[in-house]
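This entry is listed as follows:

___
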Amino acid sequence: MTLAMSWDEWASHDATALAARVRAGEVTPAELAAQAAAGIARTDPVLSAVVEVFADVVADPLADGMDPAGPFAGVPYLMKDLGPTLKGRLQEMGSLLMRGNRATADSYLSGRIRRAGLNVIGRSTTPEFGCCSAADNPAVYVTRNPWDTGHTTNGSSAGTAAMVAAGALPISHATDGGGSIRIPAGACGNIGLKVSRGVFSIAPAASDLTGLVSIQGCQTRSVRDTALFVDSCRGGAPGEFMPFWAPAEPYSDLIRRDPLRLRIALSHEWGDYRATPHLVAELEKAGRFLEGLGHRVDWALPAVDFRAAFAAQTDCYIGNFAQVVNNLIAARGLDRPPAELVEPINIRIWEEGRRFSFTDRARMQAAFNATSRAFGAFFEDWDIILTPVTALPTPKLGTTEYLTISDNPSVRDWFGNLWRQFAYTPLANLCGIPAISLPMGRQENGLPLGIQAQARQAQDGLLLQLAAQVERALGGAWNEGRRPGVHVAG
């Protein structure tokens, strides 16, 4: 098959550039889809990051209602196999229990994505129900990091992270209930923004508490692609249970200007959790870089009761995931998750969550409120909190203490392992504040290290402005200009 571009040319384009070429008549959406499918075929046998490619949509990008007049003009896109549904398509959530599960309707966000001109050509991998640090279960699939295939991508947006990093396509769907956009973006060298609460809708599902902490989004390789995605896909469906908001100016315009001088706090000592010395050194390096751009940078920490906050976050996870599992088994006429079809930790979460009372939830919400207000007070004096995206290096494949195939008898001890590894991302979900992972560092093992910036609620644009300023200062050369070992361009 003759492709529209060489692989070097393909990898040099972000989604915005590909869309411009479509509008100029230089390539067609069908040619873009064919190239992306070929890129997946070229890299996925090693990475195991794509569950399915929709051959009919590759052949005819208009087959599922994509609007070629949208700003992305037919750019290929993968949907994480969790979250927004696609009518008539499988959504199996990384679970043996859900094999053959087919959606009966589009989610609201799926329609927004297609109207934005993104051509959904397949499904990317995720751990079971998204409740895990990596898509690493040999009974389902094992998704590998393109920088070093002996390591995970982290999760839960595992397949998306691998495919964007490997150059198969420039943008792909991701979700984030505690870091699942930012953590795999950080380990794979991508840009991952978790937006504020009230930006993307998951209607008609996942309202109430799930919708308050779990956020939709994407991973990209350029700040302008992320900004355009948010501009194009944001907004609430009719009848949302909470307000949805919009900025005064599209982010695609805002990011063309540098931010004013910012007050940036470096931080890594979050209660009981600390980053390794190497990751702290990488954080300091990023701080010096931002200082060189004219910002004020110093060490500072929000006055948060971190133990109470992480205990509440654990309760939230247990309550949410238990209800997800409960709904799925009830729809199948089951009274408990089958041990041969559901991973052990998810069964234990279901068992623990069944005992979760309204009183427990009220106590959890009180801790949420106290934490949110402590962060809010901190942001009266500081504009940005900068941390590593993780406290510990990315695990090797098969490191089961972080996986839902773990045999740990204690659900709460299992979550404690997660927080030691992924300390800096979940509280942004609890508070509803925006956070972005930028590929500015390197781990000792050679994998990328995301540097995370967080800001007060509704300051998503400020994070994107700062990210765009950094991108310009780097000449667009994220990851020091390096490419992963598994890449479409070789």
